[in-house]
Amino acid sequence: MDETTPLENMLAQMERAQEYARVDPGIFERLKYPERTLKVTLPVRMDDGSVEVFTGYRCQFDSARGPYKGGIRYHPSVTMEEVTALAGWMTWKTALVDLPYGGAKGGVICEVKEMSTDELRRMTRRYTEGIRRMIGPHVDVPAPDMNTNPQVMAWIMDTYSMYEGYSIPQVVTGKPLSLGGTPGRVEATGRGVAMITRKVFDYLDKDLHEATIAIQGFGNVGSWAARLLAEMGANVVAVSDVTGARYDPDGLDLRSLLAFSEGGGTMEGYPDAEFISNEALLELDVDVLIPAAVADVITTDNVDDVRASVIVEAANGPTTTAADDALVERDVPVVPDILANAGGVIVSYLEWVQNTQEYSWTLSQVNADLERRLTGSFDEVVDAYHRHETPDLRTAAYTIALRRVATAHELRGLFP
User: Fold this and answer.
1) In what order do the strands lie in the sheet with 274-276?
2) Taking Cα atoms as reference points, which of 95, 99, 103, 90 lies closest to residue 21?
3) Which long-range contacts (CB under 8 A, 24 or more apart) does 206-211 make?
4) Which residues are catalytic?
5) Residue 17's beta-bridge partner residues?
6) What is the DSSP pairing of strand 140-144 with strand 68-74?
7) Of all helices (H) and strands (E), which one includes residue 317?
8) At a CB cut-off of 8 Å and minimum separation 6, what does 246 contact?
9) Facing residues of 45 across strands?
């Protein structure tokens, strides 16, 4: 396994892009560090009457271009360093797709599968109280992430609103439709991954129809990417979750698989496809590999066995810096996470704009705006890749993002 952390990977990606971005050294030094990070202690009354103490974080990385924006995740592996890296990636992501936001991220160390709905609600409200002085509709706007959903966003919105004394739907995005959510937000990240996959095939002058695709991760993002790519004519041959992967070289029956997994929560016991390990899925001989689970899954330990022709990063930080080097050496195109999974934050922005204006848009309007922004950003990355002769698409994407954030800092100046 590579001896680097997600934060070290992000900083290495920035350093590589600096050769082409040529940001002022003083500003570049500022861009390496978050503006603030809060750690909160969350005592929660459990259903059995006991009190369990959880730990939560909120990192605000950069606000030069606008309010902080970033999700909240519930997972046992959450650390301060992880949320710092994710907040940094959000900074570069929002800049790359040219949204008037900075980057933030939050998380609570917990195991959602072992908690009841009432326990999650109490923990969420306590976490919201802990970070509420940091967030606000023009300060920091959270959204769903790993193991959080519209219901969690509704609890956060309600808790924040109760303290303020009136309803403030624009304090979070990814809400239920009846509380000011926007149609298309739930599937936005997966839809964006599908759009970008189609776009990279066009760029490479290849036909997506009947292309074989393997997706590591079958949560919200992976499952939506799978069904939408199938609708585009691609052949999804493998998907996975924590129980392992399901593989059919002739193509999975996604309708059957989705019905099965939604009924039981996982794919464990699904009978109509071959069982393989998550590790084996990464090594399948397919046209496209989409890592859509967690960070650091493509490393120096397995990169030589990765046989996909194209990699589209739906997860945050799934490829380590050392593995990136190997893929560049083999001329395997990698669409970086800050572009490939930006659909969620784009539609979150559209939801925030609608809430601020107190005006709603149709699903077709939202999806059209998403496609315009995302495919336009892809074209900008490809242009930067050729114009600056960067080694890969990731470096080109970071070159654009660094310049945009640095320009905002330069124009605003250093306070005081």
Assistant:
1) 274-276, 244-247, 235-241, 212-216, 288-291, 310-312, 334-335
2) 95
3) 206/287, 208/232, 208/233, 208/234, 209/233, 209/234, 210/234, 210/235, 211/235, 211/287, 211/288
4) 105
5) none
6) parallel
7) none
8) 238, 239, 240, 252, 257, 267, 270, 273, 274, 275, 276
9) 51
Q: 304-363, pLDDT tens digit by residue?
A: 999 999 999 999 999 999 999 999 999 999 999 999 999 999 999 999 999 999 999 999
Cα 28–chain centre separation: 24
pTM: 0.94
Residue with tokens 């041959």: 237
**pLDDT, tens digit (0-9, with 9 covering 90-100), for 7-30:** 999 999 999 999 999 999 999 999
The answer to whether 300 and 226 have CB atoms below 8 angstroms apart is: no
Tokens 């952390």 belong to residue: 5
pLDDT per residue as tens digits for the range 215-274 = 999 988 999 999 999 999 999 999 998 888 999 999 998 899 888 888 667 888 888 889
Peptide bond into 416 cis (omega under 30): yes
